[in-house]
Amino acid sequence: MLREVEAKRGPVKVPAFPHLGMSRERLIAPILSSNQVLGYISVLDHPPHNEELAFMAIEQAALVLALSVAKERELSEVEGRVRGEYLEDLLHGTYGDEAAAQRRARHLGYPLHGSHIVMLVDIDDFRGFNKARQISEDAIQALKREFLRRVTTVVRTTYPRALVQGRSDQVVALLPLGTEVTDHQARSHALGLQIRQAVADWKPGFTVSVGFSAPIEAPSLVAGALREVTSVMESLARFKRWSQVVAVPELGLTGLLAAVSDERLVDYSRRHLGP
User: Fold this and answer.
1) Rounded to a whole number, what is the largest CA-CA distance in the chain?
2) Whole-prediction pTM value?
3) CA of residue 76 relative to chain centroid, distance
4) How far apart are CA 234 and CA 171, in angstroms?
5) Are 215 and 184 within 8 A, CB to CB?
6) 239, part of any domain
7) What confidence tens digit (pLDDT) does each residue in 88-117 have?
8) 56 is in which domain, residue-wise?
9) What is the CATH number of the domain that holds 66?
């Protein structure tokens, strides 16, 4: 039934389907934006003596709703880009001085005061996933966009004001803890499990690993926290430890070693242990 409505791309009179709980006929129109069906409008008890007017009214209503949704999406995308640019500046240490970082944070509604955690969500063996399925570049980009959307949805449930940004086959986020950091490890671990499950439900066989930094102050320590988490995640990937949820502080010496580059470790071993 809905396929017929979508195919016609306009209002359709639908008869009653008592076995589906639809005891009366109705008019149904798709809400379309950029060739995508956003939803449907269903009208009961339309005036039978002026059906043409009813068709025009429901079609107009669908158009108004489509424009409204498109506008909201556009605003959301712009806001997402601005927040993402700010996060990238924090992650690269290119935010200017602390006063500038504070001003931008206030403008975006991000609470820079207090402690924060850097979170990194990494698709496990994404190169192998692509190679095994031979998917097109357009499909890869669509997959990454949906991956970002789903991770963002889960993150915002727990941290509504978090900064979230997609980076190739990763998603990085800055999570505001405020001044209450006593239960941050439990909250972080629970969030990591939720993200991992959400991705598994969306695309079975598609796994992610999630890493968290120690609580840090922003903006000065954000870039360093990302480097630590990235090093840990790269170490996990190197040993093919997929589908992990880890926090840098919980790894102890392993975490410290993971945060050191291979070149520095080799140099250290040569200087102190010999060739």
Assistant:
1) 95
2) 0.71
3) 13
4) 14
5) yes
6) yes
7) 999 999 999 999 999 999 999 999 999 999
8) 2-72
9) 3.30.450.40
